[in-house]
Each structure stands twice: as structure tokens, then as C-alpha cells.
User: Which sequence fits this backbone?
């Protein structure tokens, strides 16, 4: 059960009220670790590559093709998603490469411009069978902007989904990107209110700043796709740091990157259990 469409993972999860883990890939080791963690827990998983990660590598193809190869060899369903894409050109490149979904982020634009830009991307992606996530109500935290106070209005969310035709919606409900502590407080009543108003799956960004029990509660209240990046990088980097500190003569990159990969595998398997047991 290798590479699958994102829709085929998210839609059954909505019906069962399960959360779906969507974890960010920067290095090849992330993709290997995330898939190994999903295989251990027997859960499907979404690999996602952000526009920032593409910029880091200088191009989508090398890391994108690597992630696709890891997904195709998996024993659980794995989908590949592009995260926080602001460039329609990168969306087109992703669709050509074979991603199952894209998150098009025009949340920095005003409402009307966000609707126009997103609807254009949806038309292109749907013609190619690709699922589209968009964001309404800018979720802060990136590039130093901290806006944990941002909130998505349920009525506006429903209107946005109807006007754009998106397949999933990222909403602002109290989380913030790139948090190093897990003490964000989610507005669970708002999650339930948006879930009742909007006919598509909801996506939680900034989930690294949310503790296990709060993540599970968010899923119970109607969240489905749970995006986690920073939290896994904390685990990766802590293991690398320990490994390097323990042996100052260590030069084989496989030793410390391998330790980081193992730490991410363990944490992915654990988190997928949290999201499914909610
Ligand atoms: Zn995000």
C-alpha cells in the first residue's frame, strides 16, 4: 500500500473522527523516519514538503522525488503534500512531479484576493486530480510573526470554501507556528463551530505547540489533518546534539543523522497513536 492520493487518507479519517498526522520533510532522513514510524503504528501518513524546504534545497525535484520513492516503498498508505506554497508556479511543478495535494497559502492577502488566487489554483489542481488545502485567518508564528490570537470566523470559513472549491481548510484556532513549548491553548468550541459550518476537513497548523491531550481534544471536536514540523525537529536535533556531545571525534554523518532519524521514528509512531485514540 504505497503512494496514495491525500484524499484517500483524509476522507476515511473524517468519517471515523480520527486525526491524520502530516509531518514535514526537510532531509531524506525525515521521510524515512516518518514512514518507519507510520509503519510501526500501522497508520497512514502524509509527508509534506514546505515551500521553505524547497527553497533550502534550491529546487523541489531532488527532495520531492526522494520522498515519493520512500512513499512508494511503504507498507502503509503514504501521501505527498506541498505545504505553505505561495507560488502558483511551484504548485504546477508539484502537480507535474506527482504530489497528491497542495496547501496554497494566500492568507497574507485580503479576503477577496485570497479567494481569487485560491480559486485559480483549485481549478488547475482539480483538473489534474490534486487535492487543495487553503488557509483562512492567518496562523501566525512564521518569520517572527506571533499571532496566536488570530481566529477564523465560521461564517467566513463556509463562504470561503464555497467560493474557492477547496478540499480542506487550515484555520486559526489558537495555535501558532514554530512553537518550542507545547502550551498553546486551542479554542475547542471554535473548532466545533467551524467544523459544523464547513463541509470540508479542517487542518491544524502550528500543532507542535499543542500538547497531546489538547491535540486529541481538537480531533474529537472536528480537526482532521494535524500538521507537525517543529516538534519533530526538536526530537531530531536533540538526538544529534547528544550523539555529537558524547563523541567529539565522530565524523561519520550516518551516526548522528541516524540517531536523529530514530528519534523522529519513535515520536511519529507515538503521535499517530495519540491522534488515532482521540
Ligand atoms: Zn503551517
Assistant:
Amino acid at each position: 500500500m504505497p503512494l496514495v492520493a491525500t484524499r484517500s487518507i483524509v476522507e476515511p479519517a473524517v468519517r471515523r473522527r480520527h486525526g491524520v498526522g502530516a509531518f514535514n520533510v526537510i532531509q531524506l532522513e525525515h521521510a524515512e523516519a516518518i514512514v518507519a514510524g507510520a509503519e510501526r503504528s500501522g497508520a497512514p501518513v502524509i509527508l509534506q514538503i514546505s515551500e521553505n524546504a524547497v527553497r533550502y534545497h534550491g529546487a523541489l525535484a531532488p527532495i520531492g522525488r526522494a520522498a515519493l520513492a520512500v512513499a512508494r516503498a511503504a507498507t502503509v498508505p503514504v501521501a505527498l503534500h506541498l505545504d505553505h506554497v505561495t507560488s502558483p508556479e511551484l504548485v504546477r511543478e508539484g502537480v507535474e512531479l506527482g504530489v497528491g495535494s497542495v496547501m496554497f497559502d494566500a492568507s497574507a492577502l485580503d479576503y477577496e484576493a485570497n479567494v481569487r488566487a485560491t480559486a485559480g489554483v483549485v481549478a488547475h489542481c482539480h483538473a489534474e486530480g490534486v487535492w487543495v488545502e487553503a488557509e483562512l485567518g492567518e496562523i501566525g508564528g512564521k518569520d517572527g510573526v506571533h499571532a496566536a490570537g488570530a481566529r477564523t470566523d465560521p461564517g467566513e470559513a463556509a463562504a470561503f470554501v464555497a467560493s474557492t472549491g477547496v478540499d480542506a481548510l487550515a484555520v486559526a484556532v489558537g495555535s501558532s507556528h514554530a512553537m518550542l513549548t507545547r502550551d498553546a491553548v486551542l479554542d475547542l468550541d471554535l473548532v466545533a463551530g467551524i467544523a459544523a459550518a464547513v463541509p470540508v476537513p479542517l487542518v491544524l497548523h502550528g500543532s507542535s505547540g499543542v500538547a497531546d491531550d489538547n491535540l486529541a481534544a481538537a480531533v474529537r471536536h472536528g480537526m482532521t489533518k494535524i500538521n507537525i514540523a517543529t516538534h519533530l525537529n526538536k526530537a531530531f536535533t536533540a538526538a544529534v546534539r547528544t550523539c555529537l556531545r558524547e563523541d567529539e571525534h565522530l565524523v561519520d554523518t550516518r551516526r548522528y543523522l541516524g540517531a536523529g532519524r530514530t528519534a523522529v521514528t519513535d515520536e511519529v509512531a507515538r503521535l499517530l497513536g495519540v491522534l488515532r485514540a482521540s
